[in-house]
Amino acid sequence: MVQATPFLLMLSLALVAPGFSARKQCVLSGRWVNDLGSNMTIGAVNGKGEFTGSYHTAVTATRNEIQLSPLQGSQHRTNNKGQPTFGFTVNWSFSDSVTVFTGQCFVDENGKEVLKTMWLLRSRVDNINDDWKATR
């Protein structure tokens, strides 16, 4: 289970690859790192807006060893403003939990690509009476 600092954490992810900052359009494909040191890699977005990738979190609430985890997502077709909305799901390889992210890709005033996201994490609980504590 991934640690949930606030209820819904706003992540600001910055593209690590040099040379991308001059673009006017925000492109999801690439390697992204957040302020906590978690990183993800998003592959090419196909014509339907679908993509796959991997996520390696830097934080966890379990004692299990953190492992690279698969992600699957969808991007709204890029509009003429070039700052698409998207969503993706991470199925954590090292815990009984899943996180869904939703957000938008922006190009800031300096030409830097930034992802702004919100997420919900769902952990497995032993019975329905514990359902109240399963989503963060």
Automatic annotation (TrEMBL):
Chief localization: secreted
GO molecular function list: biotin binding
Entry superkingdom: Eukaryota
GO CC annotations on file: extracellular region
Disulfide bonds: 26-105
InterPro entries: Avidin, Avidin-like_sf, Avidin/str, Avidin/Streptavidin-rel
Subcellular location: Secreted
Signal peptide: 1-22
Xref: Pfam families: Avidin
Keywords: Biotin, Disulfide bond, Glycoprotein, Secreted, Signal
Family: Belongs to the avidin/streptavidin family.
PANTHER family hit by this protein: AVID PROTEIN-RELATED (PTHR34399:SF3), AVIDIN-RELATED (PTHR34399)
Quaternary organization: Homotetramer.
Function field: Forms a strong non-covalent specific complex with biotin.
Protein name: Avidin
Organism: Rissa tridactyla
Gene assigned in the entry: Avd_1
